[in-house]
Specification:
With 374 residues, the chain is an alpha/beta fold. It has 13 helices and 14 strands. Bound molecules: flavin mononucleotide (FMN). It is found in: Cytoplasm.
Length: 374
């Protein structure tokens, strides 16, 4: 029988997963039967939390190091971590990357993440809202504005859905439901290719993305899911009206590995393994896109695991740095673990500022980072 991983009790401080039947009333609302999309969303959380789904290849950030400053001439207490993205102020240049929604566990996680984002002044994205478009009963799992009225908040849909009957109406709905500041369109050809019965018709999407950018009243952001965006593709996306890019490069969570773990047939499993380390490393995406588009609002993500990674990504040209898996793990643990993570990341970023003689985030770009000779 198909099962869903669902958190029903706690052992110590960690969420404990048990398998419940997919039609368990504890998992689904009274009316609806579980849809395939809901099962997939629950699977993604379980696989990401229980299996090793990280790249074995790296982000490329290890090829850079900050030049240490032995006399910063700064008071640590005065360091300024604040940032601005798409016109909204943030207390730190941190984004809780798009992850989840559509199940009760996803709801708990989204609300915890949103409360932390509100408390610490961070940005946040929700996971793909396709599950709610298909079944509006799961809308509460995305309704995080109630606990995060002030944050920079991103709606999320797969760009490929524009080839599967989605259009302006569905995108507008995703934004309205969230009262979102912008819509992220994720680009995930490898994930769809590895997924059993994935949506693999990516033909003629650029024009449809352009049309959406022209008509949606909020900015549209293009994002990968961990395989990176090249400078050439970034230029084409900017040409059609994309207002910001999240590189979501290689080196962190590998969606080929996630889908390989979930695959029901041997060929899809092997496909996922073969392409487990496919993609453009996060650092390479950042350098190339920043060079091609000096003024583009740019988000770094994919394999950022501590505040030093974040600071390097900012020094390479990012305006905002997103983490997915680390925030998921902390949120699945406890609210306290989440607060601890944010405070640790902030302390690490501040330490980089201090030890490079940088008073504020923009100073990181002033030649503080050097390539490590290989
Ligand atoms: C459990 C989980 C679910 C995700 N779902 C989405 C999604 O619905 N939409 C999206 O754009 N990215 C999604 N992502 C991708 C992340 O936003 C991010 O791009 C990727 O995981 C790389 O970041 P990381 O290495 O910090 O995990 C998901 C990631 C995780 C861990």
């Amino acid at each position: 029988m198909a099962t869903l991983a669902y958190a029903v009790r706690r052992k110590g401080s960690a969420v404990d997963f048990v398998n419940l039947p997919v039609d368990s009333p504890a998992v689904f609302s009274a009316r609806g039967l579980p849809a395939a999309t809901q099962i997939r969303k629950a699977d993604h959380l379980r696989v990401c939390l229980e299996e090793d789904v990280q790249f074995q290849a790296t982000t490329g950030l290890e090829r850079y190091r900050f030049r240490h400053c032995c006399l910063p001439e700064l008071d640590f207490a005065d360091l300024d971590l604040s940032a601005n993205f798409l016109g909204k102020s943030l207390s730190a240049p941190l984004l809780i990357s798009s992850m989840t929604g559509g199940t009760e566990l996803a709801q708990t996680i989204n609300y915890r993440l949103a409360a932390a984002a509100q408390q610490f002044g961070l940005a946040m994205g929700v996971g793909s809202q396709r599950v709610a478009i298909e079944n509006p009963e799961v809308l509460p799992s995305f309704a995080v504005r109630s606990v995060a009225p002030d944050i920079l908040l991103f709606a999320n849909l797969g760009a490929v859905q524009l080839n599967y009957s989605y259009g302006l109406a569905q995108c507008q709905q995703a934004v309205d439901w969230l009262e979102a500041d912008a819509l992220i369109l994720h680009l995930n050809p490898l994930q769809e290719a590895v997924q059993t019965r994935g949506d693999t018709n990516f033909r003629d999407l650029l024009g449809k993305i352009g049309q959406l950018c022209r008509h949606l009243p909020v900015p549209v952001i293009a994002k990968e899911v961990g395989n990176g965006i090249s400078a050439q593709m970034a230029e084409r996306l900017i040409e059609v009206g994309i207002r910001a890019i999240d590189v979501a490069g290689a080196g962190g969570t590998s969606w080929a590995r996630v889908e390989s773990e979930r695959a029901s047939d041997a060929r899809q499993r092997r496909l996922g393994q073969t392409f487990a380390n496919w993609g453009i490393p996060t650092a390479d995406c950042l350098v190339a896109i920043r060079q091609a588009a000096p003024d583009l609002p740019l988000i770094a993500s994919g394999g950022l695991r501590n505040g030093l990674d974040v600071a390097k990504a900012l020094a390479l040209g990012a305006d905002l740095a997103g983490l997915a898996l680390p925030f998921l793990q902390a949120a699945a643990d406890s609210e306290l673990a989440l607060q601890e993570l944010v405070e640790t990341l902030s302390a690490e970023i501040a330490t980089v500022l201090f030890c490079t003689g940088s008073a504020a985030i923009p100073d990181l770009r002033a030649g503080r980072l050097e390539s490590v000779a290989s």
